[in-house]
Amino acid sequence: MQVQLVRIAHARGGDKGDKADLSLFAYDETTYAVLKREVSAERVAAHFAGIAHGKVECFALDNLLALKFVLHQALDGGAARSLRSDNLGKSLAAGLLRMNIEVPDDLPLRHPEEHV
Q: Of these four, 18, 19, 22, 63, which has the most CB atoms within 10 Å of its CB?
């Protein structure tokens, strides 16, 4: 089945210069395995195609059950230069949680669908 990431994970984000740093955290090891399989640098780049104009890097942080993504050329030159002040790092983390992925039917969901 397809679900938004917000139903199975949480995220944090930040920005430095023209880069956004997004971290996606699983609540358990089973969900982390699904995230590692389904949420790649390529998928994140496609999800933010109109925003991130540079490469997207992914780093697996197995000890934290997290994936870290660095989006290059994503902030119109950086916070001080950008006219997109509402779309900087923390807002992009919320945007990442709107990505849909395939999950096993028996994967536990954290949030009822009607609240997403």
A: 22
